[in-house]
Amino acid sequence: MSSQNDESATQALPDRTQQNPAEDKGEEVSKNAAKKAAKAAKLAEQKADKAKNKGIGKSEAKMPTSKTPKKKIDGAALIGIDVSKEEDFPHWYQQVLTKGDMLDYYDVSGCFILKPASYFVWETIQNWFNDKIKKMGVRNCSFPLFVSEDVLQREKDHIEGFAAEVAWVTHAGSTPLERKIAIRPTSETVMYPYYAKWIRSHRDLPLKLNQWNSVVRWEFKHPQPFLRTREFLWQEGHTAHLTEESAAEEVLQILDHYAHVYEDLLAVPVVRGKKTEKEKFAGGYYTTTVEGYIPATGRGIQGGTSHCLGQNFSKMFGITVEDPNAKGEDKGASLYVWQNSWGLSTRTIGVMVMIHSDNRGLVLPPRVAEIQTIIVPVGITKNTTDEERAQIYKDCSELASKLAAVGVRTETDLRDGYSPGYKFNDWELRGVPLRLEFGPGEAKGGFITASRRDIPGKDGKTTIPLNSLTTAVPELLDTIHNDLYKRADDQFREHRKQITKWDDFTPLLNQKNVLLIPHCLTEECEDQIKELSARKAEEDSGVAQDARAPSMGAKSLCIPFEQPEGIEHGVTKCLNPQCTRLAEKWCMFGRSY
Amino acid sequence: MSSQNDESATQALPDRTQQNPAEDKGEEVSKNAAKKAAKAAKLAEQKADKAKNKGIGKSEAKMPTSKTPKKKIDGAALIGIDVSKEEDFPHWYQQVLTKGDMLDYYDVSGCFILKPASYFVWETIQNWFNDKIKKMGVRNCSFPLFVSEDVLQREKDHIEGFAAEVAWVTHAGSTPLERKIAIRPTSETVMYPYYAKWIRSHRDLPLKLNQWNSVVRWEFKHPQPFLRTREFLWQEGHTAHLTEESAAEEVLQILDHYAHVYEDLLAVPVVRGKKTEKEKFAGGYYTTTVEGYIPATGRGIQGGTSHCLGQNFSKMFGITVEDPNAKGEDKGASLYVWQNSWGLSTRTIGVMVMIHSDNRGLVLPPRVAEIQTIIVPVGITKNTTDEERAQIYKDCSELASKLAAVGVRTETDLRDGYSPGYKFNDWELRGVPLRLEFGPGEAKGGFITASRRDIPGKDGKTTIPLNSLTTAVPELLDTIHNDLYKRADDQFREHRKQITKWDDFTPLLNQKNVLLIPHCLTEECEDQIKELSARKAEEDSGVAQDARAPSMGAKSLCIPFEQPEGIEHGVTKCLNPQCTRLAEKWCMFGRSY
């Protein structure tokens, strides 16, 4: 790959990138490109306004979480992002998603439209994960959207965690239903009565089912696309095992798959660990988790959870088998099965966007990008003949076919009337990982000019000889993936501070870090830390914090599996100054989504 | 393939099939198999009873549509189907689905659980169809489950078709919502406000989106698994085009894909055609359809519909572009886009089951069977040594690996303590298309014994030399598919009667036929035919009809694209004796689901 990063080659490259199509200069054929672009953008705005008047996109208008006015980026392109990630993260996130064609706001608050580009990411995750779990013997199925009140409320701790957020159907047409019916917030209570019916003997174990569906949790907190939505897409796996060991093994297998979805598909680093008692799944035995980190806000984010439910639900729902290992007097004794549940949602997409994208728009990791490579014809001027232009277009299409043949998802942008600069902006906004430029110069030299989305300007430019195109492009896409991951991983590591003095806690928290501290793992102590760090944040700054630097306290994110040295059992104290207990583990705390 | 159907070979085969495990004789090692099977069945029954007491499976108890007692099949296996398809179709269908492990009843009426075997069929359809539509430029996406009252009601004709069946959410937790929110019965009104926003110019056309989701139609008629359910899974495609031609072309492409899902995956014949004005999609321009036929009841069934919506919705929702072809004075004139919508649901699975399955249980067409081939070890007796048994098991596993390597979905059934007869019954019940038996005799002879699920007894048996296993089995699976299709197609053709005398209409209808008649295509006339054929049915039989031979009148199923000769325009009369109009087309009428 070193040849592609050859400085001398890249420095000789023309910079055809034009931040603003209105600044487009003479070289290109279409004098009217800027006008057309401006007109198109204006039309779009008018249309959007019209739609808003009809009530569409209303929630978009309401969306801002911060009270401060939008911070505009000076000279930002008309079609591009006009607030910066650093200064107004909530608006930036909104713009990256909507202008990057990933998502649209919807007229039912808290619900969002997943446009094809983001749904493609989800489909890629689905295919990858289906392949892994099917190899584990998991089978997909489909349980109903609805759950009766009786069944929903059978497990008390569990339902307490969801009760306030359950959406209730009370009417069909104008007819009131005899009994109101809930929309599932998750499917434990939907499925487990049937596990009790289906599991007749230890031969039926393990029972491993999964479903891809949507669930509804009618949260009253401020909704945020992908991260906190009232309906969201996910998969939920529900399995039953004869032994705790079998259940425990699977919990970790699944967690590992979740980690790899982040690492290998989304180029997002995560920390694997266990949730504390306070943060575990309501009604479960223990919860394992992969935790991510959003550098722009310094907040942790739960990426996916794999729960061992123990025998709690099997006792509530009467899921038993005859113990095959019971001997003598115990023969015929029944055994409550061990259960797991595990879920990964479209939140994955939000995490990916927040981490990688920049002030030019979306940045998609190559493995989940619907379009991995966009080929743009360049160097067409007023003096170019129709034949020459036709030849360049034809060459572009042929290059696209060659790349498609080796599995690279490639498109060409042969739109007339738009300048290369306009097109460059457009595809950057949509996060296409790699742009290939091809014109008379490239044709003559037998190469193609490549521009990486993840490295702006000349540093991200290189040339690829045409005869190595079909090997070099896939390699370059892999390099982009690895570099995206490394940058995010470096940031996460820099902001994961291991501390042993309480006085460091809140200042470091306020500097966008998550903190590894010796902790007693009790709920009471967690509550204290949350309170202490929340108050301190306000004192420090002297002003009320807005959504960008929340005054919320820190909570425990996870007990990382990878434990540093330094805790001497029976000696090391819990870091919380108000706590008198001994430390059990290094526990990761942080502000969190 | 002819060698496999060699009579002399099949006649020499042992018949190891045992209808009732309790009748299992000495040959097999497990003397206790029958007892165990009986015990397992009893336990299962007790468990089911227990579950019912908890309210689970209640709707199953309520399910029967006919008032007559179940007709038991004499000598039916304990675990098998105990009513016959011919005598008690509704109970038979219920048993085939539940005992075949395809589906379970759910404690919210009208909702059902799709177990892995049926969900696999759906996944296979999804993969196949996704491949086809992606090649057409359709992209998948996800719109919300919820739709506001305002938006839902914007298109009057459309909503009239669904209003009585819309489920309404009115509360979240114990908090009443400000405005009640509907669960989508279909997504036209959910999506089209956004089409108005997104489609800015003719360059954005065609816009082709699809989603895989579930919709809710709270029907008050008697629910039937897969055929009439309050929640069902489907795909819904929604596209926008610049011209009627472009829309019309796509309507037929999609209809063709639907036909091929039935024909090529489910081995189900369908008739392609157009719906009459009376039966078309509410609010649409015209509807095309694939229509199937259920021989056991003689009823037609709508298999999937592809609608051209015309410009009706685009006018309601203001989806316009500037006409790119307008010249002179018309320049700048705006144009309402042409729209299509098309949907295929899990109803497909019900049709497939009703057509192919028999009194031994489910019959799955090979291309959608999760397990295509089950390998069962045979010929193990009291005198078989442990080593010999281990060798046979090992051979079975190796054969399975070989088949898996060529893409045949293969499992082995090496359960101890169950006789081959018991296993045969079990896999037949689950519809596995091909059973392979392997024992000492087969090992010695270098062959494997194959039993087709679709041809019972010795006629379906053949032997396959081990050295041609990996080519012969895929070929045999294709043969099974083709034979299943041909049998169903023959039946459909036999029961599709072209008639020109009204007096033949109701008698032939009562003989489980669908009828091709010269028809005027008016709604008034259809209503008359429905009334005439309903009344006549009761008169003919003298007693009220039950669900198996419904007294419902005939309705128009479709105007087949393939029109027979015989209608002379301006001369041929509509067949309805009360109608004075001229016939326009041959129209297919029938009782229908």
TrEMBL record, chains A, B:
This is proline--tRNA ligase. Coiled coil: none annotated. Signal peptide: none annotated. It is an enzyme of class 6 (ligase). It comes from Talaromyces stipitatus (strain ATCC 10500 / CBS 375.48 / QM 6759 / NRRL 1006). It comes from the Eukaryota. Belongs to the class-II aminoacyl-tRNA synthetase family. Residues 114-365 form the Aminoacyl-transfer RNA synthetases class-II family profile domain. PANTHER family: BIFUNCTIONAL GLUTAMATE_PROLINE--TRNA LIGASE (PTHR43382:SF2), PROLYL-TRNA SYNTHETASE (PTHR43382). InterPro entries: aa-tRNA-synt_IIb, aa-tRNA-synth_II, aa-tRNA-synth_II/BPL/LPL, Anticodon-bd, Anticodon-bd_dom_sf, Pro-tRNA-ligase_IIa, Pro-tRNA-ligase_IIa_arc-type, Pro-tRNA_ligase_II_C. Residues 42-61 have a biased composition (Basic and acidic residues). Transmembrane segments: none annotated. It catalyses: tRNA(Pro) + L-proline + ATP = L-prolyl-tRNA(Pro) + AMP + diphosphate. Residues 1-69 are annotated as: Disordered. Gene3D superfamilies: Anticodon-binding domain (3.40.50.800), Bira Bifunctional Protein, Domain 2 (3.30.930.10), C-terminal domain of ProRS (3.30.110.30).
